[in-house]
Amino acid sequence: MSAVDADLSGFLRPTGEAGQSRLELMVTGARCAGCLNKIEKGVAAMPAVSRARLNLSTGKLLVIFDGPGADPAAVMHRVEDLGYAARLYDPAAVEQDYEREGRRLTLALGVAGFGVLNVMMFTVPAWAGLFGQELQPATREVMYWFAALIATPCSLYAGMPFFKSAWASLRRGKANMDVPITIGVLLTLGISYYETFRGGRHAYFDAAITLIFLLLIGRYLDHKLRARARGAARDLLSLQTTIARRLDGAGFERGVPIAQVAVGDRLAVAPGDRIPVDGVIESGESELDNALISGETLPVAVGPAMKVHAGALNISGRLVIRAEAEVQDSTLAEIARLMEAGAQSKSAYVRLADKAAALYVPTVHSVAAATFIGGLLLGLGAHEALMRAAAILIVTCPCALGLAVPAVQVTASGRLFRAGVLVKSGAALERLAGVDHVVFDKTGVLTEGRPQLLAPVPGALALAARLARASRHPLARSLALAAGPGVAADAVTETAGQGLEGMIDGRTARLGRAGFVGVEGHDGLETELWFAIAGEAPVVFRFADTLRPDAAETVSRLNAMGLGVEILSGDVAPAVETAARATGVERWRAGMTPLQKAEAIRRLTESGHKVLMVGDGLNDAAALAGAYASMAPGAAVDASQNAADLVFDGRSLGAVDLAIRTARAARSRALENFAFSALYNVVAVPVAVFGLVNPFVAAIAMSSSSLIVTLNALRMNWVGRNEGTAA
Q1: Is residue 230 within 8 Å of residue 57, measured between CB atoms?
Q2: Out of 178, 265, 278, 441, which one is annotated catalytic?
Q3: How far is CA 146 from CA 49, 150, 185, in A?
Q4: How far apart are CA 367 and CA 361, in angstroms?
Q5: Are residues 13 and 50 in the same domain?
Q6: 37, 72, 89 — which closes off a domain?
Q7: Are 635 and 580 found together in one domain?
Q8: What does the pLDDT look like over 594-640, one tens digit per residue?
Q9: What is the pTM of this model?
């Protein structure tokens, strides 16, 4: 009995909403926005199904059921009826499928490359006839047969990804871009064999395998980009600890897998550990580093009855918390779900090439068929009619159409890479060109992201650093870094939320808050440390997270381009206000949680804005994934880098301005290429219909159109030289 025929009700999970349940399936064979829409609409139309959401990057189909009529097997049947494979979602199986597909594409690409290099040994001598060095017919025929011996098996094997996709599309009554590619390759091989059999002068074995080789390069890169996109949520969840210390009734600690933690469990969190799940502190005091969660510059003092979130780092004191959520419902898990939803919305982006292909495929094939039938009716003969039909398919082979956008994207991506910006997908450039609003995180984006010591007192610095070297507190680390290498104090103890005490050369010394070191009547600031040693007056060390040198200039350039700019930060209001005033940003919000940031991005999108989000913290990951386009500095956490469309080296915030200008120029070049491709086909098709070109000339024309499109894309390099930093 297959999985589809079995009772799968045990795989339903509650959603938290009354009467609702969820099912996760793995769908294979879906590659484009058309596939996504067809599956989602087909499943959503089923009884008891509330909604269906497919993520093309991961292949995960999430189905939400309303009421008791949930039938997972029926959903799987429906997906298979639509022409796709479906099975229960298994992350391990997903990884295996992606690795298997990667190996197949790599092998196919290698075979195609071998075929291209070796078939030329036999076809190049045949080309010599174009230059007055005609081969004898018998020699030319031998050369063509050797070319066929190499090109045929290589083309049939390496072209299998396109052939299978085309067949699956035709079975569903559709025609995707792989259909004309498949027909063009097979027809080229067929005509080449026909011409070789009859001793003709022209065969096109090299054209068939070369076309497959070039297209496989794009297919392989697309596979790698999908694999990278899938890693975003996985990297985020990897920040969650795998073991929790659960307390039993007698107060003894026992390590358990985090998946076994239930709501109400009492958990111990030692200094240096991360909070395993969302909860409330029952006992203990400490400081939490929420930099990855909220983006706050400095640690936050916590105590009994305060809420804590999964992923926060416990710095100084032991805590006992009561779990309020299971691991799958934690803050980190919710952020991961938001990231996945954001990636899904991006995959629904319909590229202009797909729209052109929807019109191209039926039109060209209809014209070719009409030319063949019309030729027979007009008495041209089967051979001549076939040659004209073949010339149409070859001269209009969608190489130029297929290269129109990728050629520009590769050139623009290369130019940005040399400027320190990594573009993770071609679609990112398309979206970036259309943004009209830029949202910055503060810490680590507009600022350097680390507290820096201001105006140190040299003598006191060396002594205070001996205490600071024994702490993980960010301010203590900054102080120790400013002092340089050295020894630590003796007998150092740390009081949670207060500071450090130890012995330096036989004298008692303290480093921390003003009250802790004995300074009365002073309201301690979060951006200062006080140091006192027996026999000497207390000394204060102040810190600040400084702005990037070009932050204000970058904001000014973005405003000059007509873009709105605002700041969304998890940091405290005074720090955000200071940064906003220094950079000239009028709109800013502080103290925002990750979910609030994602919600703010969603509201901006609903109001009609196309938002570029620039962030670096874990608290920015969901907002990065939900924005229309996104960028992250190279120092960002892995989850944020994977969620972002572009990653810049972080040395200069001007990379944001440069990337937008380059994306806009790339959009112009792509539209020019589309216009040329359309004009080329308007001219080429009538010429082929009236028999003014044979398949050989058609192949040259097709190659020339691809070359022109590529050369136009290369103009991106010259535009940058003429316009300085503009693209």
Answers
A1: yes
A2: 441
A3: 58, 7, 18
A4: 10
A5: yes
A6: 89
A7: yes
A8: 888 889 999 999 999 999 999 876 667 788 888 888 888 866 555 56
A9: 0.57
